[in-house]
Amino acid sequence: MISSQLPALQVVLPLAAAPLCILFHNRTFAWLLMVFVSLASFGISCALFNQVLAENAITYAMGGWVAPWGIEYYIDKLTTYMLLIVNGIAVLVSLGARESVENEISSDRIYLFYTAFLLNLTGLLGVIITGDAFNLFVFIEIASLSSYAIISLGKDKRCLYAAFRYLVYGTVGASFILISVGLLYVVTGTLNIADLSQQLVNAENTATITTAFVFFVIGIAIKAAIFPMHLWLPDAYTYSPSIVSTFLAGTTTKVFIYVLIRFIYSLYGYEFSFFHESFDNLLMIAACGAILYGSYRAIKQDSLKRLLAYSSIAQIGYMILGIALITELGLAASLIHIFNHAFIKVGLFLAVTAIIYSYGTDSIERLAGMAKTSPFTFVLFLISGLSIIGVPLTSGFISKWYLIKASLEAGYWGLIVIIVFSSVLAIIYIGRVIETAYFKPEATNTASFNNKKMPHLLFLSLFIFCFINIYLGIETSLNVDMAFQIAHELINK
Question: Can you spell out the DSSP letters for 311-343?
């Protein structure tokens, strides 16, 4: 039955489709293929979600080689939770990508963009679904290498600088992860994550195991842009083609935070991770630093994309903060924010994509009065902006509400002050954009702007993301209920 092969198809489908974009060398075909594959992948993730709800967890042995000898795919509620995020974003981003891609990438490179996009999707899905530590590293590298490629494809020469900078940091992070996997293999003699966790329970707490833990955390912190190891992110988001910034902002960092959660709870166990190594204190310091630093730097930016990049650093801090609280409510709050922020930030970046397509700039100052000429674009930007601030009836409010509850439950009153203060900072940097677009007189040099109408499919994608932001602020049964179930299972394993 094909339903039994869905775990393999989740990864194989985009992987097999990627070379077809090169083979046919046609940008229209490549775009249609990307949309079709994204839709099919989303359908597979929905089917896996329903299977997991019925069976609790699914294991799939690649090639019939049973673990720990073969590579195993492991799908539980946390896996499907992340698969829905990545595939859902891939569908909507690919749907509205065509005109923006043609506007910002040279025509002779467009088919290469779609190839790399599908490879990036393959890598992210593989990272989520694999149950093998070395296979995890392989998929991390597929996702990373394809990210470097799609960042570098833009017409702006600064794309090459951003891609190279990301490559350097990404290579360092990958090296730490690979060394960690090697050390774990030396100690346990296995690469299967479930088997590794059993072996580590029975193994003595040696310097090798601790070193592997530290190396893995550092590697993932670089990949996830966790403060202060975030230095690749602002340039990567700012100078890459707009649709690339949009997809990366919604998926990449979230997937690597997922890896951190999986590593802590499914491999080492949270008792070792937090209580033995005092890891929670380091995470809490990094989280608070990210929230304050990212929010402050966002205020200082004139580029919309760079503003959103620093905002992402702050939002990653919220996700890490929930993990650092070491409570079921805190972990659930982190998972809720991973889900909500993915759609919030993609909505904001898609609005910026539309602005760049229409006006050829993302400079805040140059967009003075532009809300009059593009009212729908800026209204949709405002909706997602209100969600970043945490206004009630938006998904961002739900995230911050549970983070505040978790902080209160854990007795950290200072964290509540930081969360509220960062929301005030978000009002300032989102408010600057709104003030400029709505209340400042129209710029005198508008004749130099492209003044192109937003494409219908891009508008549709943007509208759907904004609708999701409002919907998840009212109806929370999918993300909140599932997050609490996942948190309960991970902590009470």
Answer: HHHHHHHHHHHHHHT-SHHHHHHHHHHHHHHHH
